[in-house]
Write a structure and sequence with these properties.
Strand content: 35-45%
Number of helices: 5
Largest sheet: 5 strands, mixed
Structural class: alpha+beta
Helix content: 25-40%
Length: about 200
């Protein structure tokens, strides 16, 4: 990787246009890929992602200098470890970390629906490597429609002059916010470009 931004470690450990875009942190600006370029969306187990993030965080903590001042050898070592954890076998010298997206949600996210690949293409990334993890239950607000029925009674005079009574049934609806518990999932995706 030509650029290695370990800031991604803290972003990825933190817990919707496109949900991937809303939490996206770019690290380097590269041109968008053309529609003929292949984008690979790849899932890795969360334990592997978490291990890589913790290893990168540990390297930052042990260093006496900021990562931006690391030697080329230190950067190559860190980049190689990250790419190995992400299961990217391309030459680390040719791979650029374009950005990272990390978020939590109670909504259903489907990385295979094409939205992740399209977002990666727009960012100029050949790979979108993602992982997810269950975070437990979370309270969220949903809107439910509540219906109520009512009867109106009216008195009127008919054509013969007699008083008549009639009823009219009406239904009305109101949207009511409700707090419910739902499963919450965290997602992290790294976007990588191969030159």
């Amino acid at each position: 990787m030509k650029y290695f931004l370990l800031l991604s470690v803290t972003l990825a450990l933190a817990g919707c246009s496109n949900v991937w875009q809303e939490s996206y942190q770019p690290f380097v600006g590269v041109p968008e890929l053309d529609s003929q370029s292949r984008v690979t969306v790849r899932e890795i187990p969360w334990r592997r992602m978490e291990s890589a993030l913790r290893e990168q965080e540990e390297m930052l903590a042990q260093s006496d200098v900021h990562w931006e001042e690391w030697s080329d050898e230190q950067r190559r070592e860190a980049n190689g470890k990250l790419l190995k954890a992400l299961q990217i076998s391309d030459d680390p010298e040719r791979v650029t970390l374009v950005g990272v997206s990390s978020f939590r949600t109670t909504d259903r996210v489907t990385p295979w629906d094409g939205s992740l690949a399209e977002f990666a293409r727009q960012q100029g990334a050949h790979y979108a490597v993602w992982a997810d993890r269950y975070l437990g239950k979370a309270e969220t607000i949903v809107t439910r429609t509540v219906w109520s029925d009512s009867n109106d009674y009216i008195t009127y005079e008919d054509a013969t002059g007699e008083d008549r009574r009639a009823s009219r049934r009406r239904s009305t609806s109101t949207d009511v916010p409700l707090v419910v518990e739902k499963d919450e999932t965290g997602y992290t995706a790294f976007f990588l470009r191969v030159d």
